[in-house]
Every structure is written in structure tokens, then in C-alpha cells.
Amino acid sequence: MESSGNTPGKLEQLRIRISRQFQTILDKTVPLTVPRWSFAFTLYMIYWVRVWYLNGFHIITYALHIYFLNLFIAFLTPKVDPMSYDDALDEDDSDGQLPTRGGEFKPFIRRLPEFKFWCWATRATCVSFAMTFFEGFNVPVFWPILVMYFIMLFVITMKRQIRHMMKHKYVPWTSGKKKFQGKEDSGTVIDQRY
């Protein structure tokens, strides 16, 4: 009877060990942005080849792309809504917070970091690929309507997101560190080593 009591403990230990090994692999891929996205794109293309070959699973594909759109919007959206931050500036300082100025630097922090975006998009592609092996998910639909609806949804959603960016004056990407130019020095250089 003692051996049956140890079995769940050993299974739990095995699950924890596998989970740690998987997390270690994921942690090693964090700085490898281009290879990670190349891998995700390759999986996505394999999924598309399978869907094209089977000529079905349009509902699964539509759901996958709606999920990608939700991830992309979360990727573009700041973690702290600028509207609520601006409202906090208008309130009186009686709540014990430090005073802030309107020109204060506010760094852009994404609601969904790039690594999680990649991880969840890759996971969704793998799940969708696995679902193509089950005929129960192959619901017959007229796919051009789904394509038109997705395009319309994408345009409306992105239009709203771009308006939000313009209203609150934030850009969800960086172009590198700003380089400052000093004054031109027209004087001669004096070598003080001697």
C-alpha cells in the first residue's frame, strides 16, 4: 500500500522536473528574437499548408487569427492606460502621492511583452495544428465571409488603436537610444599628457 501512496508524489516530481526543463529552454530563447519568430512563422506556414491541403478547418483558422489580433492589440497597448494616468494628474495632491508634472517622462511598458506574445502565438498555432487532426472541428462554412469579416474587424480595431495612440501621443516601438549633439567646439585640442 505504501507504493501506491508514493506514486502521486513521484508523478508530481516528474511533472515538476519536466516543467523546469521546459522553462529552462524557454529562458535560453529569450534573447534570440529572430530565431524565435522564425520558428513561429515556420510553424504557422506548416499549419497553412495543412489547412490548404485539407481544404477545411476554416473556423479553426478564423479563431486562430482572431486570437492573433487580440494578442497584437495587447502588444500595442500600454500596461498603464494613459487616460487613467492623465486623470491622476488632474486630481488634487491630498492623497499622499508625489506631485507629477505633465512633461514627466513616462516609459512605454507593454501590456503583453514580446516574449509572451511569441510564446502564446506559438502555442495557439500548435493547438490549432493539433485540432486539424480531428474531423469534429471541420465545420463546413463559406470561408470568404469569414475572411471579409476578419478584414473588417482588423481595420476597425486597428483604426481605434491608432486613434488611441495619437490621442495619448505614445508610440509602441522604439528606434534606439536618442543621440544628442553637443555644441561645435572650434578651439584647438591641447594635449596634456606631457
From TrEMBL:
This is Protein RER1. It comes from Oikopleura dioica. It comes from the Eukaryota. It is found in: Membrane. Keywords: Membrane, Transmembrane, Transmembrane helix. Involved in the retrieval of endoplasmic reticulum membrane proteins from the early Golgi compartment. The chain crosses the membrane at residues 59-77, 140-158. It is a multi-pass membrane protein. Belongs to the RER1 family.
